[in-house]
């Protein structure tokens, strides 16, 4: 294929991706989430609180409050009826998300601390970038080992080289950056395959390797700065990352089912699939405030679905001639697992610890299933995948049911705790004398007595 055609196809792919992302971000200027965010601006809430408690406002504060409330009223009027209904439906849930974020911030140390996993990931990405640089420059001397080590060291020294960049960051910024770096590997590698597709396999691999580093560095930096500025929730980051990876895998599965022979279709499939996945993940996380634990559970359920899909497809392949369309079964069940996982967690609010425990324990259960299949010398791939996925699914659901019950009971106790018992107690000793006079005036031959007035009146209200 001519170089002009390659660049033309690359341009079209990038244009489609830009249109897709633009369509998602431009669903509406005046949205329910946007109105909620504006009405929860810290400055506005602080001044409003002063007004409510009766504190005197300065002239500037009164002007700000009046102007901002006019702005909020205009914003609400310009919202569509669907967005207004969504705001009324979701605002309590978003308030809960904001409260949980504040509690997490209070529970964390004031000063950000680099963990061992953060250093390991930074060094690991630096080594990868250095290796791609060696491939680009085609170095075959001592630099083969030296350049990756230098790059790994430079990436670990980032906070020292550019300290201003890392000022006032928190754990979510680093997590978003790592998610961007990983998704950047997919995006960059896909662009490399598109650009070099149609040539020999070595050139395709080299282009994908080099471009994956470029994409990882770029998206990692974009995610870092975006999270530092907008501070998305951890659940939003987790859902976005999962959908981006799942979308890329689904795109590759579709191309594999079509039996493409060159790298370019795979690059296009991964690129468009990941873009569509990010768009869907953005919609899902805006419609419901998932926690990080919720996102981990959905990821785990998707992984179990993919494992079951491999068990089914491998069994079909053993009984019949292998068909390329079998690649779609794991991808389809992975998507189904994501949908089920996200639906199950709504209203449960899994904590970070609960979500990570589910992932950790179900991963161990999957290894246990593999061990059982090895002990009994299972020869069927369907049995191997089935045992591993079945053990993981059972463990996951047992833990999920336990945590769901705990969280529901905790929520009920919070609701009851917030309710104050109201009561009234009145003493009327004069009613004793009045009752004596009333009863004395009753005819002794009558079959009834007058109703006495209560001396003690106690009313209890929950």
Task: Please characterize this protein's 3D structure.
It is a single chain. Helix content is 77%, strand content 3%. The chain has 462 residues and is an all-alpha fold. It has a two-stranded antiparallel sheet. Helix 6 (116-137) runs antiparallel to helix 7. The longest helix has 38 residues, at 381-418. The protein is globular, with a radius of gyration of 31 Å.
Write the layout of secondary structure elements.
Layout: H1 3-25, H2 32-39, H3 42-53, H4 59-78, H5 81-107, H6 116-137, H7 143-156, H8 158-161, H9 171-196, H10 201-230, H11 234-257, H12 263-287, H13 292-319, H14 328-345, H15 352-375, H16 381-418, E1 422-427, H17 430-440, E2 456-461
Which key phrases capture this entry?
single chain; 462 residues; mainly alpha; two-stranded antiparallel ribbon; 77% helix; disordered N terminus
How many helix segments?
17
Number of strands: 2
In what order do the strands lie side by side in the largest sheet? 1-2
Using the CA coordinates, give the radius of gyration: 31 Å
Task: Give me a quick take on this structure.
It is built from 17 helices and 2 strands.
């Amino acid at each position: 294929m001519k170089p002009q055609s390659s660049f033309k196809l690359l341009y079209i792919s990038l244009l489609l991706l830009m249109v897709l992302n633009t369509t998602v971000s431009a669903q509406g200027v005046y949205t329910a989430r946007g109105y909620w965010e504006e009405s929860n601006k810290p400055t506005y809430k602080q001044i409003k609180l002063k007004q409510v408690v009766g504190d005197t406002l300065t002239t500037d504060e009164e002007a700000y409050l009046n102007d901002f409330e006019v702005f909020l009223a205009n914003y609400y009027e310009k919202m569509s009826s669907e967005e207004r209904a969504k705001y009324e439906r979701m605002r309590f849930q978003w308030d809960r998300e904001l409260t949980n974020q504040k509690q997490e911030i209070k529970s964390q140390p004031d000063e950000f601390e680099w963990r061992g996993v953060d250093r390991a990931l930074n060094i690991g990405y630096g080594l990868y970038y250095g290796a791609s640089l060696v491939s680009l420059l085609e170095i075959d001397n001592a630099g083969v080992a030296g350049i990756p080590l230098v790059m790994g060291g430079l990436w670990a020294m980032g906070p020292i080289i550019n300290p201003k960049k890392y000022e006032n960051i928190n754990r979510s910024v680093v997590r978003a950056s790592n998610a961007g770096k990983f998704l950047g590997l997919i995006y960059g590698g896909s662009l490399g395959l598109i650009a070099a597709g149609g040539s020999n396999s070595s050139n395709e691999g080299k282009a994908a390797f080099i471009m994956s580093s470029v994409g990882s560095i770029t998206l990692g930096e974009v995610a870092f700065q975006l999270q530092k500025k907008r501070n998305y929730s951890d659940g939003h980051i987790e859902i976005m990352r999962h959908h981006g990876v799942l979308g890329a895998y689904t795109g590759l599965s579709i191309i594999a089912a079509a039996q493409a022979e060159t790298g370019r279709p795979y690059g296009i499939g991964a690129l468009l699939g990941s873009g569509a996945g990010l768009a869907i993940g953005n919609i899902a996380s805006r419609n419901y405030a998932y926690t990080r634990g919720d996102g981990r559970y959905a990821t785990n359920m998707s992984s179990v679905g993919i494992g079951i899909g491999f068990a089914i497809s491998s069994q079909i392949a053993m009984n019949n001639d292998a068909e390329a369309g079998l690649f779609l079964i794991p991808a389809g069940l992975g998507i189904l697992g994501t949908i089920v996982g996200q639906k199950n967690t709504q209203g449960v609010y899994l904590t970070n610890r609960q979500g990570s425990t589910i992932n950790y324990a179900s991963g161990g259960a999957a290894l246990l299933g593999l061990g059982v299949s090895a002990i009994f010398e299972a020869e069927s791939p369907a049995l191997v995948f089935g045992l591993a996925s079945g053990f993981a699914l059972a463990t996951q659901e047992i833990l999920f049911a336990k945590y769901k019950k705990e969280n529901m009971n905790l929520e009920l106790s919070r609701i009851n705790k917030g309710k104050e018992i109201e009561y009234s107690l009145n003493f009327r000793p004069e009613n004793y004398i009045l009752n004596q006079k009333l009863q004395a005036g009753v005819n002794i031959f009558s079959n009834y007595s007058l109703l006495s007035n209560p001396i003690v009146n106690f009313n209890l209200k929950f």
